[in-house]
Amino acid sequence: MFKIYNSGKEFIEENREIFDKYPLETVFFEGNANSMYDDMSEGFAVKAYEEKGFLLAIRYLDFSMVLFGDSRFCGELAEGLYQNNLTFTQLLDAGGHADAFFESYEKAAGGTHRLLRKMDIMKCQSLKNADTSEVKAVDMSDIEEIAELNVEFSREALSEEYDYNYALERVKSQIAEYYAILRDSRIAAIAKKTRETDRLCGISFVYTRKEYRGQGLAGKVVAFITKSILDSGKLPYLYVDKSNPISNHLYLSLGFEYVDPQTEYKYISEKK
Known about the structure:
Blueprint: E1 2-4, H1 8-14, H2 16-21, H3 27-35, E2 43-50, E3 53-60, E4 65-69, H4 74-83, E5 90-93, H5 98-109, E6 112-124, E7 136-137, H6 143-157, H7 164-174, E8 178-183, E9 186-194, E10 200-208, H8 217-231, E11 235-241, H9 245-254, E12 256-268
Parallel strand pairs: 4-5, 10-11
Antiparallel strand pairs: 1-2, 2-3, 3-4, 5-12, 6-11, 6-12, 7-8, 8-9, 9-10
Helix pairs in contact: 1-3, 4-5, 6-7
């Protein structure tokens, strides 16, 4: 069976047991569904299922479509998406579903796909000692600089171009989530809280300007945010690029541990 949800609220309520059982693995699902709580016009949430199994998929705006569940339903999910014209350009796969899904989807819709990046989820249950005395919350006077750093981060870390004006609007709405260390009256290293739920809080946009690298500044900002999350009784987590040994070592040194592999793909449609 294949179901299209009419609202994020319906999606969350019907699948609450799944989200409660796998909170870290499904954190994107809840976050995206909450962004479409009453209105699904900016994405979709669907489920391929039978009595003893399921496969969930959700896409919000231009973010990656996310899959979670049983790979036996990849064919049914692919067919349901294609038949209902539910499109996506990227796929974030947390359970080894990509090969089976793309085999079915491309058979129906055509096109091809390529690997974008391999990642891991890491979590921290106990923070190792770190000096966080220099870390400060940013404010509205920093929004233009942070937007510029968003563009630099996307270009360097993700090999993607990020529109400055779009970044500026997002920073304005999320300014309370950013923390930084300053050098020479400007931001030298920065990170932010993201996708906070009643049990979890993510850390993202960990970035240090090139001229300030090698001083452990990013680690101090991450440690500061991690401590605040742990102190609130929640579990801190983040995504790390498998190909970056520096960041992997940084997070391990702070007490983070690997949880699950994640793989992101680009889908290239045949339609012009």
